[in-house]
Each structure stands twice: as structure tokens, then as C-alpha cells.
Design brief:
By secondary structure, this protein is mainly α. The protein is built from eight helices and no strands.
């Protein structure tokens, strides 16, 4: 199975799967932590803030907001679900790329606004990460979708469902 995946004739589709799997997991796993252990996310944010010389902030305030925890968790789980749909069947769910990109790139813009208006450099780092992630999954998804046009599903590994 692994050899068939690595040696498949459509390298763009293979690369799409290789890139999207960690991105999907990078959304799914943190979304759960936002819901049940927000101190993990704010702890990481505080480390990044110290690393980039950001101003201190109050993680207890961030952790206490049930509304924002629920919204963050559901938002990021939605990103994971859309990435999964693309991986599951790129032909059928290709249109999902539009709301996926919109959601991720809107997040990047909002973090940029927060970084500029508050001086929190850590949010600027998130802007770069979110923008880069969005650009990456757009590029590999579009390239893979173009590459599979005209190919039979049975030559693709994993085979679209």
C-alpha cells in the first residue's frame, strides 16, 4: 500500500495527500485542545510571544472565555473537516477549497489586525503561519486537481471514494 502510494503515476496527487494529511491533523488535534485544555494553546502563544519579544498578555483571560473557546474549536474543526473532504474525494469536493481558503485567510487577516492594533507580535507570527498554510493548501490542491483530470480513479492512491 505505501509503495503503491509513493510510486503512483500522479505525483501531484501524492504530494497533495502528503501535504494535506499533516494540515488536517494540525487543525483537528488543536481544535480539541481549544475546547478541553485551552491553557495548552495559550501556553504556546505565550512562548511564541516571549520568543518574538511581544508584550505580555493575560492567558487566564483568554482561557476563561467559553464563547471564544467554543468558536475557536468549532472554527478549526471545520477547517479539519474541509481538508478531510478534499482528501477523501478531491474531484467531488474540490469546491470546498473556496470556503476553506476563505476561512483560513480571513483568520490570517484578523490576526494581522490584532497584531497591529495591540502590539502582540505573537499574533503577527500566527498571521504568517495561517497565511502560509492557506497558500500552501491552495497551491497543492489546485495542482493536484488539475493533474487528476483525465485520470481514472483506480490509478490514484488513495482512490477517491
Amino acid at each position: 500500500m505505501i509503495a503503491a502510494f509513493l510510486n503512483q503515476p500522479c505525483k501531484a496527487y501524492r504530494n497533495f495527500q502528503l501535504v494535506m494529511t499533516p494540515i488536517t491533523l494540525n487543525f483537528a488535534i488543536p481544535s480539541l485542545s481549544y475546547a478541553v485544555a485551552p491553557q495548552l494553546a495559550t501556553g504556546s502563544l505565550m512562548q511564541v510571544s516571549r520568543l518574538v519579544g511581544g508584550v505580555p498578555f493575560a492567558p487566564e483571560v483568554e482561557n476563561a472565555s467559553l464563547l471564544w473557546r467554543a468558536l475557536a474549536s468549532s472554527n478549526v474543526m471545520t477547517l479539519a473537516f474541509m481538508c478531510f473532504l478534499l482528501q477523501y474525494n478531491l474531484r467531488r469536493y474540490f469546491p470546498v477549497l473556496v470556503p476553506l481558503a476563505f476561512l483560513k485567510l480571513t483568520s490570517a487577516m484578523l490576526f494581522l489586525i490584532i497584531a497591529v492594533t495591540t502590539g502582540q507580535r505573537a499574533y503577527g507570527s500566527i498571521t504568517l503561519l495561517d497565511g502560509g498554510t492557506g497558500a500552501l493548501f491552495i497551491a497543492v490542491t489546485v495542482l493536484a486537481h488539475r493533474a487528476i483530470q483525465g485520470l481514472a480513479d483506480d490509478v490514484l492512491v488513495p482512490r477517491p471514494r
